[in-house]
Amino acid sequence: MAAGHALPDKVRKGDAKRDRGNRTGFSTGANSAAAAAAATLGLVQGEVPDAVECVLPNMMRVRFAVTDGHVDGDHARAVSVKDAGDDPDATHGAHLTADVCRIPGGGGSVILKGGPGVGVVTRPGLGLDVGGPAINPVPRRNIVDNVRAAGAPILEAGDSLEVTISVPGGEEMAKKTLNARLGILGGISILGTTGIVRPYSTAAFRASVIQAIDVAANQGQTSVVFTTGGRTEKCAMREFPQLDEACFVQMGDFVKAAFTTAVKQGMQHIIVGAMVGKLTKIAQGLSVTHAWREEVDRELIAAAAAEVGAPPDLVAEIRAAETARFAAERLAGLGLAAAFHRALAARAIRSLRQRYPGPHRLTVLACNFEGVPIVTVNEADLTEPTHA
User: Fold this and answer.
1) Which parts of the sequence are annotated with region: Disordered (predicted)?
2) What's phi and psi for 120, nearest 5 deg?
3) What distance in Å separates the CA atoms of residue 309 and residue 273, rounded to the nearest whole number?
């Protein structure tokens, strides 16, 4: 794998050339498979190896270091420490631990269980059994496949292998994830469709957004509230107290992923909560609103400011400013905050309607930087038609 690169000391927020490191890492599923295979080899050979070669879901063969291995009769334990590469991952450094027990006369099966630190599924809609461990289907198969390969002599003799994956400290790690919102309690999820974690790809976050919408839909919810972060979510929860917690999804920067999933799931009412910067980017029609992707459209902000009566000299300042926040703060000082955010919200609704057509209703909630509501705009209240 390529070595990581240090970040430059000072980089402008919108600098697309920012070097964010490129060292890949491994998923919790890949490390779980490595630990499980090593413990199984311990039962076969009488000693847990210091390293083990695993086949990942993408069919790559990778050698993993193994720690804390021991064998005690029909039980073996091994640990594989997760290296997330240059990805800012809550589970980086996690000790994926596998306890493998030989069950004489079990019929040659591999039984997979979750132990302490692995979340328990408490709601339907995740494609996992309620009451079972949060081990996703791909890593589940991958763990079993690697255990079958390592434990072939045991399984061929008609004995079974019971594999329990646990993660010391997993409950604390889970607090930095969306697991609780998804109804996964008590620990992290064992994830990974390829086994490889790509730095800053944010693929896991995007996947969790889609998963959260699927969960809401499978629970029979017909409204979904997309927010761009924690403050906007709290703001939206206060504004729409009648909605179930499952309706609230932090989409972050993933506008396209959120909307296409909501439309696909037949959501009837889609609400967006955002502050001025993200609201402007949604109005621009961006699929991903991250600062590294594309800068805010200052012409759009200036036009909205002019529309609500900002003086020409201020409009010129807004057009030259680096951030949307500058406009919001200056216009608030003139008593134009609500009108300005309403103008931006209307533009956002028209953009969203054009990009994501369907029978759903649209609402935009604009919040200030303290997470306090400024204005709520319903598509039906706009004077100009929004349907393409």
Assistant:
1) 1-30
2) -110, 135
3) 25
User: Is the backbone of residue 205 left (phi > 0), alpha (psi -120 to 50) or beta?
Assistant: alpha
Which residues, in sequence order, are CB contacts of 102 under 8 Å at separation 6+? Answer: 43, 74, 75, 154, 159, 160, 161
**181 within some domain:** yes
Domain that holds residue 45: 25-197
**Does 280 lie in the same domain as 164?**
no
Q: What is the mean pLDDT of the chain?
A: 88
User: Among the three residues 197, 232, 252, which one is the final residue of a domain in this structure?
Assistant: 197
* pLDDT tens sequence across 90-142: 898 999 999 999 999 999 999 999 999 999 999 876 778 999 999 999 999 99
Closest CA to 258 of 231, 282, 284: 282
Question: Of 307, 318, 310, 302, whose CA–CA distance to 342 is shortest?
Answer: 307
How far is it, in rounded angstroms, from Cα 285 to Cα 347?
A: 10
348 shares a domain with 290: yes
